Amino acid sequence: MAEVAPKIEIKGIRDGLLITIGDGADWESVQAALIARIEAQADFFNGARVALDVGSRPLKAAQLGKLRDRLGDFGITLWAVTSDSPKTQQNARSLGLETQLTKPRPGRVVKPLDPHPEGEEALLVRRTLRSGMRVTFAGHVVVLGNVHPGAEIIAGGDIIVWGRLKGVAHAGANGNTQAVVCALDLSPTQLRIAGHIATAPPRKGKPVPEKASLKDGQVVAEPWSGK
Predict the structure, then answer these.
(1) Record: fold of 117-223
(2) In whole angstroms, what is the distance from residue 120 CA to residue 178 CA?
(3) Which single residue of 95, 116, 150, 203 has CA 20 to 30 Å from 186?
(4) Model confidence pLDDT, tens digit, residues 125-143
């Protein structure tokens, strides 16, 4: 009988990233698949806070502890493990891990604005990013300042720069092709949306606010009017 490939889903939540693992595959295969995915997107996951939903799997404390240590090698903090298994919940709590995600206040109805929840969280950076500085975040990144050449922004969602963008910008780093990059002066050293790469042509005339997005598989910049 052929092995069942582990099903792993990753999305942004208020407290970081939620990794949901489907039932079926054995735990060793799940760990191997998860680590392989993290290694392929190391910059995206570096510094992330992760909650893990393991479904109904009954996991030992040693298994959870081993995975937590392995994630730590990549700069990832495992802070919660959710499961339908009472055994897994008990063992997670014994390691100091949360077993429930933060929920909205009673009576408050939260409706998604679009079908891309991974882009709903945002990081506000109130400073100019100079050469050698890097910002990595699972959701949107908003910079109130300039992004100098040699600086880099990697975002799972959109990148908004209220200033001059002259460094490297990678929006939709987790594969979100709907992500955009906006700036008052869009002149990046390199611009990426999902897996598509573009470089800005030489500036002609005065800079104007622009928005870059994917159209027909190409990164296209157009005036950013806010409409």
Answers:
(1) Pectate Lyase C-like (2.160.20)
(2) 13
(3) 116
(4) 999 999 999 999 988 999 9
